[in-house]
Amino acid sequence: MAQLNMVEALNLGLHQAMRADERVVVMGEDIASTGGVFRVTAGLKDAFGEARVIDTPLAESGIVGTAIGMSIYGLRPVAEVQFDAFVYPAFDQIVVHAARYAWRSAGTTPASIVIRIPFGGGVRAPELHSDSPEALFCHVPGLKVVCPTTPADARDVLLAAIADPDPVIVMEPKRVYRAGRSEVPDEAPIDIADADGALAELMRARVARDGDDLAIVTYGATTPLCVAAAERLEAEHGVSAEVLDLRGLFPLDVEAITEAASRCGRALVVHEAPRHAGLGAEVSSLIHERAILDLEAPVLRVTGFDVPFPQFANEDDYLPSVERIVAGAVEVLEF
Amino acid sequence: MDEPLRIIGNGTDVPDRDVPDGLTDKDLIELYRWLVLLRTFDERAVALQRQGRIGTYPLYWGEEGTQAGPLYACSDTDWVFPSYRQCAVATLRGAPPSVILGWCRGYGGPAGFYNPRTYRVAPICVPIATHLPHAVGLAWAAKIRGEDTVSLAWIGDGGTSEGDFHEALNFASVFKTATVFVCVNNQWAISTPVTRQMATATVAEKAAAYAMPAERVDGFDPLACYDAARRAVQRAREGGGPSLIEAFCYRLGPHGTADDPRLYRDDREAERWRPLEPVGRMASFLARLGVLDDATRDGIAGEAKDRVAAAVRELEAIEPPGPEVLFDHVYAGERPWSLEEGLRELRALRRREGD
Ligand SMILES: Cc1ncc(C[n+]2csc(CCOP(=O)(O)OP(=O)(O)O)c2C)c(N)n1
Ligand SMILES: [Mg+2]
User: What is the pLDDT of residues B334-350, one digit of tens each?
Assistant: First the structure.
């Protein structure tokens, strides 16, 4: 059992996947010789060679497109997109091909690829290095979208995503990358060759904190903030808030979401992405559609604003803070 | 492979060539002034980053000639399209350097963004190669209006791999737009060497696929960069269509201030290229010509230093943008309701938390 941060955990997962299964290749910009701008792929080239650990030309559409081709031939490519907003040149390949290959081949030939995307703000980065584009992908039928928040989840999700036959977008909250270490079991819990259903299990929501008065539903970098907000609600308002870390963004863990909202009677959704047509809208709809009679208040949202992610000097104004989450929670509680 | 065009020799075994057409002694001094301003800005910006006063900075030390040279070949009414690596070129068109520093400090609004139409310089483009189609469209629009405005855009060697690069070159050649593409081939895209980026031996030969003329120049030679651009700009203005210039050089520094090149390359290679850097080289050339004496050179250096120092003072004097900046200018017209609500929510929160 090692204490790892998320970068180290992802790195461990990639080593384990490549060791366990020769079909796995890792590709992206600057991932091989430097180990990636975030070092997630460090050491892979030395361990597995240049043929399987590939520095690509600077072309995201090419990266995802060729990954799809590799998967048709039977490989299991893991493609890294260097930063969130640089996935946009690959959007075409993701939407028109990755998401549809299974459907277009009568289920015979899915695009079995993993696309890893470090995403989100809070790292004082230049323009277009802090986006949260997950909702765009959740809107595209045929994709699975997952967002691990803890080091152990990150490693396990990655392995399960590689094993999964469908195209999986792994949203990696980069603000959490080096935020802290926690225990990651050394043994890979997933046998890539025989991992049916492993991803589905890991896409179930994780209870990050227990509570009964309010369900705070979130994912990614806002999860620890929601936990901190819940502590404050407990201390200052005597409220016991549950924090649900979604993990799966599509499909959503509708049972866990509805159960928590029904039990608490009040729910708040928190994410960093802009509000309009974001995941909060989906979660809120599901709760209203399925648990309206148990609700004592409408579901509210604390999110990024409906603006481009700001230049970094003002990113703290944009990002949901513990204060904003507490304020949103109080609004739901006092409704 | 064509040897890159070189005008400035080394003062010993490599002879100087003639000063390019159209450059008077006054022009030579002015171009030198531009180079020194770019250099001074760059060095100061790196220092500011080290002090934590600005964020990650994409230094361009050594590439000043690839920026100032082609820009000098443009008329003031021509438009240029920089990538992040040419972040300071707008200052050569009169934009306040403090705004570029503001951009580096993560300021939005007027503290960090300039008006492209004032300077005919497009906003600094971070997403690789995506600005190239804009340059083509701009020149195309001029053509539609019967005007002879030229557009010039910079791109890196890595950027030639993106689809937008090829789409832009193709549009430009099909519609014969007055566009000059300057590819700064510094042989690295972060850690990826140019040999991994492309199988062609040069960037220039890609132009053949788009039936456009191309030239390779020594990217460390500001006069060679100027001269090739002058020919391309003139051809474009006369209706001859687009051109591609490959400014061949070497990325002497790290990719940006957050990058450590020791992870992927031998710094001794950079050391071998360093003596070719353009600012000192231009100064020696001008001295050999008898155009630049020590007093003038020191004067230009002092001027640039003062200008950048003043910019730093302006930067420090600027009130950092308040939370409104998030919601300002997202739309040119009225703010949609959800932005209005967001702003109200943020203001209320700031009042409650006392900022
Ligand atoms: C679409 C896109 N993908 C990835 C990046 C991240 N990135 C920034 S600079 C860079 C390398 C660019 O190399 P090159 O085009 O040679 O220009 P140089 O940095 O050498 O000036 C990369 C991959 C980006 N900015 N935009
Ligand atoms: Mg380059």
Answer: 999 999 999 999 999 88
Q: Is A192 exposed, middle or buried (0-12, 13-18, 19+ CB in 10 A)?
A: buried
- Cβ atoms of B97 and B307 within 8 Å: the answer is yes
Structure confidence by residue, pLDDT tens digits, B231-251: 999 999 999 999 999 999 999
Query: From ligand 1's centre to the CA of A81, what distance in Å?
Result: 12
Quick one: A192 and A216 in the same domain? no
- B297/A253 Cα distance (integer angstroms): 69
Question: How many Cα neighbours within 13 Å face the side chain of B122?
Answer: 24
Question: B236-239 long-range CB contacts below 8 Å, 24 or more apart?
Answer: B236/B139, B236/B150, B236/B177, B236/B178, B236/B179, B236/B180, B237/B148, B237/B150, B237/B178, B238/B148, B239/B176, B239/B178
- Residue B250: how many CB atoms within 10 A of its CB? 19
Same domain assignment for residues B255 and B328: no
Least Cα separation, residue A289 to chain B (angstroms): 23
List chain B residues with pLDDT less than 50.
none
Of B108, B191, B342, the CB nearest to A306: B342
Evaluate the omega torsion of the peptide bond into residue A251 and state whether it is cis, within 30 degrees of 0: yes
The neighbouring-strand residues paired with B246 are: B183, B216
Q: What does the alpha-carbon distance between residue B117 and residue A151 come to, in Å, rounded to a whole number? A: 48
Q: Which domain holds residue B315?
A: 25-321
Residue A129 bears catalytic tag: yes
Q: What is the distance between the alpha carbons of residues B84 and B60, in angstroms, rounded to a whole number?
A: 10
Q: Is any atom of ligand 1 closer than 6 Å to the C-beta of B209? A: no
Using CA atoms, how far apart are residues B9 and A82, in angstroms rounded to an integer? 40
Domain count, chain B: 2
> How far apart, in whole angstroms, are the C-alpha atoms of residue B332 and residue A333?
38
Range of the domain at A125: 2-202
Q: Using alpha carbons only, what angle is made at residue A44 by residues A41 and A46, rounded to the nearest 5 degrees?
A: 140
Q: Tell me how far apart the alpha carbons of residues B230 and B224 are, in angstroms, rounded to a whole number.
A: 10
3-state SS assignment for residue B52: coil
Tally of domains in chain A: 2
In this structure, the answer to whether residues A228 and A325 fall within a common structural domain is yes
What number of CA atoms fall less than 13 Å from residue A101's CA on the CB side? 23
Q: What is the pLDDT of residues A193-211, one digit of tens each?
A: 888 889 999 999 999 999 9
Residues B124 and B82 sit within 8 Å (Cβ to Cβ): yes
